[in-house]
Design brief:
alpha/beta; Rossmann fold; Dihydrodipicolinate Reductase, domain 2; eight-stranded mixed sheet; 14 strands; globular
Amino acid sequence: METIRVGVLGPGRIVRRVMKDFYKAQGVELVAIASRSEERARSAAQEYGAKYAFSSYEALAECGEVDLVYIATPHVFHCDQAIMMMEHGKHVIVEKPMAVTAEQAERMVESSKRNGVFLMEAMWTRFFPASIRMKELVRSGEIGEIRHVYALFSSAVHDVDPESRLFSPELAGGALLDIGVYPLMAAINLLGWKPVDIQQMYTLTETGVDQKMSVQMQFEGGATAQIMTSLDTFAPSDMMIYGTHGCIRMPDFWHPASFEVIRQSGERTLYEFPAENEGFYHEFEAAAGYIRAGKTEPDEMTHEESVAVCRMTEKLRHEAGVYYPGEMKRE
């Protein structure tokens, strides 16, 4: 099996979590770390066992020993950095959200197609064994026809730093793009990415980004979904899927290790998938398989879906009055 050699762009907090179980991924190898800070790049390379430490992203793009680049920088940098890597023939996994705007996402997809390289949004939730099994059961009609999906991802941030990526407009801050994409993509994973109607209620921070957002969606056939995301509220990150003959409860749906099927008869079945650490390695294994197969996008989450989600979040933000620098405000 061909080993896919991985380079990491931006060794921040998320990378520290990823590297805890990266070693479990079959057929991939970490070879390079790139940071704008030479000291940070060297420190991370030493800590994670990478062969190369680059103090520029351009050096990573030009490295002939890197096949796949994992981009873990703030949202606003994803588009330009991903295109740079793809223009140098690198495959790319880019952290969620794939881009800030639909136009950026479309340019990234176009670069992927033009250069014949793999591009995937790092929605790691899709690749967990629990997520895959749950979707199989739903598709098989285990709980009948889906009528409603509810998903919540909230985090209580008490030390508000207006210059942080969470709250700064310049860094595309706000609850929706940071964590709200998890429940949004969980719902459309089951109901499809073409809702006939989508609306929101929200509150804003003093910096002008969304602090909390509740989103309601209507789909063809009558199914509905509601998601909630917040940066000022503590709550378990659960998902409920309601069908005509039962329901499914999935705790910690964004990195699930179990779910329970509750049937109309009262019968309950618990499905468990014990996990070591958090399980980021699943998405790297999946990406490596697609790269070996010569594909430019994953079956679990197509480019068309990622672009559609960017279009949804852009619409929801703008209707809430959240515009980032460079975006044109509607009259």
